[in-house]
Amino acid sequence: MLIIATYDVSTETPEGRRRLRRVAKVCERVGQRVQKSVFECEIDQMQFEALERELLAEIDLEKDNLCFYRITEPRGMRVKQHGVFRSIDFDGPLLV
């Protein structure tokens, strides 16, 4: 399934800036960054639950925000892109 993970971490304190870096590193391990705080993740249900647990352990629920969006359209209709960025098709052929 395609999950869009978004977050907004308060960076007013040094602890907040550390949380932001940790949250970004967790997301980078499972998805690709499409904007500064937005990641596309092609993962299964078990990976999604692990990602959610890991991110919830990092953020401060009193200061930060974390949202997940499940994209359920058929694969060819999920993402419409404009501009220079093109996401990686992880299911397509691998060209080296």
From TrEMBL:
Family in the record: Belongs to the CRISPR-associated endoribonuclease Cas2 protein family.
GO molecular function: hydrolase activity; metal ion binding; RNA endonuclease activity
Signal sequence region: none
Taxonomic lineage: Bacteria, Pseudomonadati, Pseudomonadota, Gammaproteobacteria, Chromatiales
Recorded superkingdom: Bacteria
Purpose: CRISPR (clustered regularly interspaced short palindromic repeat), is an adaptive immune system that provides protection against mobile genetic elements (viruses, transposable elements and conjugative plasmids). CRISPR clusters contain sequences complementary to antecedent mobile elements and target invading nucleic acids. CRISPR clusters are transcribed and processed into CRISPR RNA (crRNA). Functions as a ssRNA-specific endoribonuclease. Involved in the integration of spacer DNA into the CRISPR cassette.
TM stretches of this protein: none
Keywords for the protein's UniProt record, in alphabetical order: Antiviral defense, Endonuclease, Hydrolase, Magnesium, Metal-binding, Nuclease
InterPro entries in UniProt: CRISPR_associated_Cas2, Virulence_VapD/CRISPR_Cas2
Enzyme class, spelled out: hydrolase
Cofactor: Mg(2+)
Residues that coordinate or bind Mg(2+): D8
UniProt subunit comment: Homodimer, forms a heterotetramer with a Cas1 homodimer.
Gene Ontology biological-process entries: defense response to virus; maintenance of CRISPR repeat elements
Name of a matching Pfam family: CRISPR_Cas2
Protein name, UniProt field: CRISPR-associated endoribonuclease Cas2
EC number assigned by the record: 3.1.-.-
